[in-house]
Each structure stands twice: as C-alpha cells, then as structure tokens.
Amino acid sequence: MKSLRDRIFDKDHVHHRRKVNEVAQVYCDLQLSDKERVVRRFEMMCYEETPVILEGQQIIMMRTIENLPDCFTKEEWDTIRQGHYIHETGYVSNLLPDYETLIKEGLLPLYERADEYVRRELDALFELCQRYKNEAERIGRTDVVEMLSHIPMQGARTLKEAFQFFRILHYAYLLEGGYQIVGGRIDKIFYPYLKKDMDNGLLNQESALELVKDFFLSFNIDSDFYDGVQQGDNGQSVVLGGLDEEGNDCFNLLSELCLKASKENHLIDPKINLRVSEKTPLSVYELGSELTKEGLGFPQYLNDDVIIKGLVQKGYDFKDACDYAVAACWEIILPKKGFEVVNIGACSFPKVLEKTLHTKDYDSFEDLLSEYRHQIHLECDAITSQYHNVYFVPSPLMEASLDVQYMNFGIHGTGLSTAVDSLSAIHEVVYHAKQLSLKELVKVVDDDFEGSPELLHQLRYRTPKMGQNHEFTDSLAKDVLQWFCDALKGRKNEWGGIYRAGTGTAMFYLDHAAEIGASCDGRRKGEPFSANYSPSLYAKIPGPVSILESFTKPDLVDAMNGGPLTLEFSSSMFVDEESIRKIALFVKAFVTKGGHQLQCNSVNLSDLKQAQITPERYRHLIVRIWGWSAYFIELDQEFQNHVIARQEYSI
Question: Distances in Å between the alpha carbon of 629 and those of 154, 297, 298, 311, 328?
Fold first, then answer.
C-alpha cells in the first residue's frame, strides 16, 4: 500500500476536487463593497468545501474546491487600475501573521475584539471545522474529534494541536485571496509544545519526527492551487534557527527535526530557510548540507550578523529585527508587525548601463562611472514615482492578525554581474588597452557582435569577471551596489515607509535580459542574466572559493532586502561525511566573511539533460529556480535551460 507521502505526491486525492461558479459579475451587479465581496466569497468557499480526511493523515484539512473565483470582473479591475497602482494580482502577499499568539490563545479572543466582517469569516471557518469534526466522528477518528473539540476556538495544548491550528489558519488566509503567505519561524512557534509533550511523555524524538513529517505533508496536499509562476512558486517558506535579542542561538531540537523531516519527505514544501551567524556551530551547517545533498534546492542560509544590523540601520527596532523571517523567496519580513511590499519593483543595472553608454561619449572611465551613477539615481526616481495610490483587495482576517508598524517597499537590483562585467570589459579594452574606442565598442555590441567573433570571444571569456576574485572588478561591484543603495536612501513611500535595496532578481533575470540587446561583457542578445546575486552564466570561475571572495566584498548590510548568492555543486561532491563537512565549512566561511544570503544546490547535469528527453523517468527531480524550488519536469523550457546553463562547482 502506498504511503501518505506517495499518495500526496501522486495526487491520488484530486478526485475529491470540484469547481464552483464565478461570482465577480454577481457581486458587481449587487454593487457590493470590496470588503463585503471578500467576506462573501470566504463564506461561500468554506460552505462549499467537502471535509475529506485521508487514511493515515494526522494534520488534516485540504482544498476540495479547486478554483478561487475572483471578487472583481475584468472591467472593474481596469477601472481600479486607472486610479491606483496594482502590485501583482492586487491581493496581499508575502505577509506573516501572528501565528504564535493566535495558536496560543485560540481564536475566541480575536472573535471578541473583531468587527463584523472578521466575525463572519471566523463563523464560516468554525462551521467548516465542525463539519470536519463530524466527518472524523463518522470514520472513527477520535483523535481528530478531540482536537477539533478544542481548537481553533481555544489555544493549542499539544504539538499536534498546534500544527493543526497552523494548518487551519494558513488555509483561511489563502481562502481570503492572499498568496505566498509564509510560515515564519516555525521552530520558535512550536518548540514549547514539543518540549511540553516530551516532558509529559506524549512524544519522543521518533514520534515527534513522524508528526513533523506529517505536518510538512500538509503543505503539499493542495500546493498546486497556490498562485505562482510555476508549481513550487507558492510561498510556503519557513525559517529555522537564529539569534534572539540576548544574542543566544535559538536552533533547537525542533529545528533539527524539521531538517530531518524535510530530507525524509523529499518534497518541495515547505522551503527551508536557516538563520545562521558567527555563533552557529559547524554541526548545524552539516545538517543543512545533508539537506542540500538531497537536491531539494534548500536550505537557504540567512546571515543574522548582516541582516539584523541592516534592519536596525533601516530604522527597525532591535527586538523586532531579531525576530525577522523571510518572504516567499528571500526578502526579509517581520512577523505580525510588517505590512510591507518587499518586491514592489526592480532596477536593471544592465539596462541603466545601456542607456548610459548611449547618452554621450566619455573621455575617461571615471567620467563614464560618474554618469552611470547619475543614471542609477534617475532610474530609481522613475521606479519609485510609479507607486501612488497603491491598492490591495481587503483581507479582513489577515489584517486582524497583524499589528502593523512597518510599511516599507523593497526594490530588487538585477543583473549586477552582467553590468559589472561589462564595466570591467569596457575598462580593459577601451581605456586600458585602447583596443578600440567606446563608440566602436558600443556599435559592435549594438550589432550583437555580428562579424566580430574574436571580440565576442575576448569579452565573453578573457576579460575579468565578477566571481574571479579580481580586485578591480570586485571594486566596481562594490561601487555599483552602493550607488543603488544610496539612490534609495531618504526616499519615503506614500505610506511613510522607506525603500530597501536588495540583490534579488525574481523572474527578471529573464524578463530584464529580454528588454535590452547584447552587453559589453559578451552576453549576446536574448541570453539571460544570472539569477540573483551570482556570477554570469559563462564566466570562467576558478572555483567556489573565488566566488565567495568576490561576492562578500560589497556592503551587504545596506542591501539587506535580500537576494542570495546561488551556487550549483556537483552531486558527485556529496559522497561521504568529509564532503558534507567541506560544504559546511564553505557556508560557514561565507557567513564569517559577511555574506548575507546563500543558496546551494546539488545538481547532476546529465540527469537534467536526460529529464528533458524522458521526463516521465524524472518526476522527483527537484531544482532551485530563483527563490523557490520546483519539480524540474514541470518547468517551462526557458527555466529548465537556465538551470542547465549554471555552473557545477566542486570543493
């Protein structure tokens, strides 16, 4: 008989699903308010759900209604856009509600202080939980009956109840229309329940691990419904470990069990982020490296020493900064206190450089750099000027789960290595070797190197690149990133918040690359940038150590919005305990040298290429895309090709 894990992976449960009718036109005809629409749809979705409890399932609740109808018609959205800036879908995302308090206290205190809209949603949610309780009674699941006789109205008493409470809340936030609603610091939230259960003899380490594995399975049961570019891009990200405000490392037994559960389940949800610092022992990095070995595309490492300092410098309270978590991909967010749009826009460094090169001729390299810096400021003017009358569809339950104090915006900085490598190449062939004039070089690049194969080869492979530990090139990277950070300082968004600079790319490593022609580093028209904060795809790199040296030289405290250095290690690296230790030491060195975020992958290029030919044989093959993991065969080909083009490193 199949395990619960395999049944969920094979989607054996999808026969329970059905669709409901669209409601937008009905709501439009009734001229309902925005909030009324959200609440009516929430009520409808809860009432239409069919309680299903799978055999062997401990943490229950799954979507049986596969579509979530929009609250607005296309024409209404067009009208809203005429007077507002709409971010992505217009629904809230990348928020982290106060799971900890709600799970501890139960939902009755929230109900008592809530307005009528939140109460209506909670009534619908309570009714759905009651129907699940009835179904549990029908099939003889007394454990579920006991749980749902207490939660979610009252606070959780055990780890199992706490996990189930989280599932109910997460389910509810998504039914409001929110997406990429993350899990936050789950080891901090749930460790007290684990300790209490173990002290009372209800759990031992073995049974606790099985419960964590089942909890993690609940993230996968209907993850294909969640909004995203590809399957896996659903924002189900969690954080483990990290420093508290007294400087203590909070990695605990539950943190370790979560890493083991993820390894044994071998599924892409939830995505694990591991907070580390100079105080983190090597054993934690080794546990993380064991998970990397599985080829899941995580954990992603977050350096507390850089990020907490960066948050405080940006005006966050130190205690709040110590409690940070991560958004769907890598952006830094705060539980309970943040209503921030951490991915509201992006600045393409290569696009700004292209404009700079076509603005005028430059007598010196210094003149070129001065104008490039000026153009980055102008680009940030243009980017931030868009964000007026920002509109989000109301989310009553989510809003009631927050105590908002921070309302900042985050701006990605894309194509850094392409821009820096281009500047380095310009310096080399124009101003140092005087091989040709800047105007001549720009003309060749504009023509996509047609008729200039020798120059293409030189620029592509023989000029210094970011990641080669080349002092001059790395100094350019430090300057460009700092100019970007400086260009956003002092700006206020319409909510009174600040702008945070980051090194992430999201999908822009493809989109922004398509907006420009070839570039002076030898990248031809149509070729992508590297993902996030990483070397260009064709840079000849001596090895990962030189990348570590190059990519820790810029001031990453100032660029704390997020965007990891992403490295692909050959799966042949992970053959024994010594290789795991080497990877762990490498990650620890990155943290010690001041890197902000690191994401390591274990890849086998042969498997990736073969999976494009015979995908049915590689259904379990997982890769990292930008801030999320995905099943390789489910990706569009352009994403598959980008993964294949990345370099495989060994230590």
Answer: 35, 6, 8, 27, 11
